Amino acid sequence: MQNAYQIAVFPGDGIGPEITAPTVEILQSLADAAPDYALHFAEAPAGAGHYRDTGTALPASSLALARASDAILLSAMGLPDVRYPDGTEITPQIDLRMELSLFAGVRPVTLRPGQPGPLTLPPGKTIDFVLIRESTEGLFFTKGRGEVTNTEARETLRITRDTSEKLFRFAFDLAARRKASGRGKGRVTCVDKANVFRAFAFFRKIFEEEAARHPDLTADHAYVDAMALWMVQRPWDFDVLVTENMFGDILSDLGAGLMGGLGMAPSADIGLDHAVFQPCHGTAPDIAGQGLANPFAMLLSAAMMLDWLGDKHDNDGLRRDGNRLRQAVEQVIAEGAALTRDLGGTAGTRAAADAVARALSLP
């Protein structure tokens, strides 16, 4: 088939393989029934377990497969008891972001009908915004290369014009698409600390330059500490938030909390040529192998992958099935009969994934 796409699959550590398997099965079933695209999956070893066994966290062959693939589906990675000699965690997912220049970390924050969460929404209000986290520099720039002595430690925060321009173009383009679809307000908010740090004043200046190119959209700013407050007090006000790497890392977990937990939080890391799709949660080694993990964030990340492939290749079939998969997860959540323990239910991983497959009318 002409419209055939290779997906590099990183099953990861802990509960990673358990949520990856049913996700790939559902994606394969969707593709098998689709007249306008095909998917081929290739597994790539990497992660803390692989480092423990081989001394390598991200093999060159796995990185080469990721580069050669049309998209990358990555599950949870890392184990608390497996670390590099300097004490830092094994994080091939961050290495992939750096190697493939995946500058835009996309973290949707959506509270779906029937979805348990900590907030009671006012009548007529919904939570549906996207946090875009710069993913290759900021305070993560010197990851693994910080300076440590007996008396002090230093890390370098780096913000470049080139990466920031690409990031802000991505953010405004996303806001425009959301507005055109009727899903967003056409508003982009730069989240920074420009009142204290020159680096963030530079970041904001570049944002304002890009904003001037989009007079049909609304652009504004917020300090990161104020945004943490407003995300709790009035999260329904926001559309697209864009921020530095570390700030985005922290605020995206706050966004996951609004959705009821990390088990509901999908994500993508997107560059000009490549993209990785993965759940925001960790490897949960305490329940690994027990079939208890929540697969919904992984399935929603897979839906984001289909959307991205559809947009990149102008393939309506991929976009159609991305939307179908997302709606099927939302339907299962709303019905409440196949919720996992973290969402207050009793379903296991397989039962939750099977419920999604039934909602899709898959065999």
Automatic annotation (TrEMBL):
InterPro entries, sorted: ICDH/IPMDH, IsoCit/isopropylmalate_DH_CS, IsoPropMal-DH-like_dom
Residues annotated as domain Isopropylmalate dehydrogenase-like: 6-356
SUPFAM superfamilies given in the database record: Isocitrate/Isopropylmalate dehydrogenase-like
PROSITE patterns in alphabetical order: IDH_IMDH
Keyword terms of this UniProt record: Manganese, Metal-binding, NAD, Oxidoreductase
Keyword check for Manganese: yes
Cofactor needs: Mn(2+); Mg(2+)
Protein name: Isocitrate/isopropylmalate family dehydrogenase
Organism: Ruegeria marisflavi
Lineage, highest ranks first: Bacteria, Pseudomonadati, Pseudomonadota, Alphaproteobacteria, Rhodobacterales
